[in-house]
Design goal:
13 strands, 406 residues, Aspartate Aminotransferase, domain 2, two-stranded parallel ribbon, 14 helices, single chain
Amino acid sequence: MEKIKRICALVEQHQAWRGSCLNMIASESVTSPLVEAILASDLSRRYFGESYSGIRVFAELFEIATELAKAVFSAAYADIRPVTGNVAGLSAVTALTRPGDTIITSPGEYGGYPLGITGWANIRLLSHPFDPDAYNIIVDAAREQILREKPQLVVVGMSEFLFPHPVRELTEAAHEVGAFVWYDGAHVMGLIAGGQFQDPLGDGVDIMTGSTHKTFPGPQRGIVLTNGSEIQDRLNGVLGHAPVFLLSCIHDNTAAALAAALAEFQEYGEAFAEQIVRNAQSLGTSLVENGVPLFGVDCGITRSHQVLIKTPSFGSPQAVRMQGLLEESGIISDCIPRLGVQELTRLGMEEAEMQQVASFAADAVLERRPPKEIRKETAALAAEFQTLHYSCQNGEQAYELIGKLL
C-alpha cells in the first residue's frame, strides 16, 4: 500500500509542478479534458482487429477519426493506425524502400529524422546540402544531388523546423528520377492543418507523416497521409493485421481520443495555428532584443512554433547548461535548446506574454539573474494561464487530473 500511495503522490506532484511551469518543449502540447477522458475510458484495455468481437462501436469511432483526418489535412487517404509518429515514419520507410536503396534526408545534426532502420536494412543514407544560417535545405545543390544520386526516397521536413522546406522544387527533381517523396511533418502538423506553414500534399509529395501531439493538440499518436492509392496499398502491407509487422494493436483509446481532437481542430484549429506563429515570432524577436543568439535571424527567426537558441551543437555542455538553468527558472525545454510556444498558446498567452517569457528566458540562459528569483515570476505568470482555449471546452482547467487518486 505504501508503494501505491507513493505512486499517487508522485503523479499529483508532477501534475502540480508542470502546471506551475512554462512548458515550452517543442514536441509536447496540452489536450482538452474531453481527450483525456477518452484516453482513460474502457477503450484503453481493448483490441481492434478482424479476429476480435466486441469492436462494433469502436469500428464506428475509427471510421469517424479516419474521415476527420482526411478532411482536416485535405488528403485522399488517412491512416491513423500508427501508435506514434515514429511508427508512422517507419511505415513510410518500410513501405517505400528496400535493402540496397538510397535515401536522401535532412542532416541529423540539424534535426533530420534519424532513420535508425537504415543501419541494419543496408540502406545508403545521404543528407541534403544544408545552410545552418538560413536553417534550410540549399535548393539548387539538393536538386543536383537528387538528379545525380537517383535515390528511391527523398525526405523533407525535420524536428528543428523553423521555415518551410523547398518541397515543390525537390519533389519535381525526385519524380524526375522516379523517387518517392516523404514529408516528415511531425512538428508542424497543426500548422499545416491550420493553413499556416506549407501544403506538402498540395505541392506533390507522395506521403506525409506526423505526430498528433505537438502543434496538433491531440493524444500521443501518429498519422500517415497520402493522395495515392498505390501508396496506401503499400502502407496496408506494413500496418495491416495479417501478417502483423509494425503493429499488433492500435491502442483504441488514443485512436478514439484522436477523433475528438480532430473534431475540435476542425472548429478551432485555424485560429490556434495563426496565434502559434504570431507567438513564436514575438518570442523570437524579443529574445534577440534581449541578447539571446538564435538561428535563422536573417531569415525572419521562425515561421513555425519554435525558436532555436544558437549553441555549438545538440546536447553540447553549453546547451545542457542552458536547459538546466531554464528548468530551475520554471521554463521546461529540451537540450537543443529549442523553445516551442504551442502549449502556452493553447492556455491563452499572446504576444505580450511572449515578451515576458523572452525576458525570463534571456535572464536565465545569459545568467543575468538567479534562477530562484526568475522562478517566482514564471510561476506567477503560469498561474494566470491555467485554462484551455481553442477548444469546445474553453475555460476548463488544463492541468487537473481526470479521475481521483488515493
